[in-house]
Amino acid sequence: MAWLDTRQKLEILADAAKYDASCASSGTAKRQSTRGAKGGIGSTEGMGICHAYAPDGRCISLLKILLTNSCVFDCHYCINRKSSNVRRARFSVEEVVDLTLAFCRRNYIEGLFLSSGIIRSPDYTMERLVAVARSLREDHGFRGYIHLKTIPDADPDLIREAGLHADRISINVELPTQAGLTRLAPEKSSARIEGAMGRMQAEMIDSADARKRYRKAPRFAPGGQSTQMIVGADAANDRTIIDRASSLYGRFGLRRVYYSAFSPIPAASAVLPLSRPPLIREHRLYQSDWLMRFYGFSAQDVGNATDADTGNLPLDIDPKLAWALKHRDSFPVDVNRAPRTMLLRVPGLGVKAVNAILHSRRWRSLRLEDVGRLTTSVAKVRPFLIAADWRPVALADRADLRPRVTPPPRQLDLFGA
């Protein structure tokens, strides 16, 4: 490997990290850089820290890099796989620490997202990742956010130490099914990945229990754990992906499951698809994830919104609207009498709108125009609810309801504000 300076390494390893979507900073513990015996640098709250998120929910205020893009594994979908002809680079522990502190002092970032290819062995790589977090916390009093991508085959003691220094830890399940993992990443195993997730969950439960009894007991990954699935690299349909995500939430108490649309890579393996899936498919999966986490939908409910033949969610309408169109017998609902669970199932009504409706209807009967002030599209709402001055007699049983509530295609303005 040719000698590279820090700027060149940063260019290579920051670009290599862009395929990992699971870098949000929600759920971290509050820390103040001005308090404590040692003081500190960085904070996840307060003055000088700006939480910036992309429209799809990704956090963009972290230094997001790989320790190295060299890897002993040969996963077909990964641009950094052993057989890939890419430019390689590797940071030392000290370089990552210095970069993090330098960016934080300039107020460019609020923390660090650190992952890595596997070099030498899983234990050796995990030791390097932990060494970065330990140095930041103990040697430099770093109070910012740290997210470490852990390695399921590493020693459990190393993963436990990672959780003591990091705010969030994560292990990527990579693909929704074991069959897909066996075909595209034969060195990895769903059983080993889930075993590591289970151990991390047990550590978090033990830590929470200890803190109830001992105020100064150490925290273990206060931001929880997350994972990521690649969409479109194998034959798994949306129904399978939704069921897998629901299972992971229920069994391991994950904070988030992230979805990353497969992106074709240079010199790709012949077993990979020739083209990427539409990005809107990734967006629909995030919407379905939101329905399960915040709207009371089960995996079976969301699965019912998929196409019976392909098992995929429709791309032209959101999953909640797709579910409502398939369950016309559940609508319309009375906005002045319906329980919260049914109001959350009305297309076009979000959690904030439903909360506002529940509060307002205690004092007066709501009219359609009142509901219209709480949503961006009253046209989508009208066929599915009853208000004081509105009953969808002409719309409720229409066979052509879908085209009436489907948003029309719109050409985006390249130079628009």
From TrEMBL:
This is Putative DNA modification/repair radical SAM protein. Keywords: Iron, Iron-sulfur, Metal-binding, S-adenosyl-L-methionine. The keyword Transferase does not apply. The keyword Cell inner membrane does not apply. InterPro entries: Aldolase_TIM (IPR013785), DNA_rSAM_put (IPR023874), Elp3/MiaA/NifB-like_rSAM (IPR006638), Endo/Exo/Phosphatase_dom_1 (IPR051675), rSAM (IPR007197), rSAM_sf (IPR058240), RuvA_2-like (IPR010994). Residues 61-288 form the Elp3/MiaA/NifB-like radical SAM core domain. Its cofactor is [4Fe-4S] cluster. It comes from the Bacteria. GO terms for molecular function: catalytic activity; iron-sulfur cluster binding; metal ion binding.
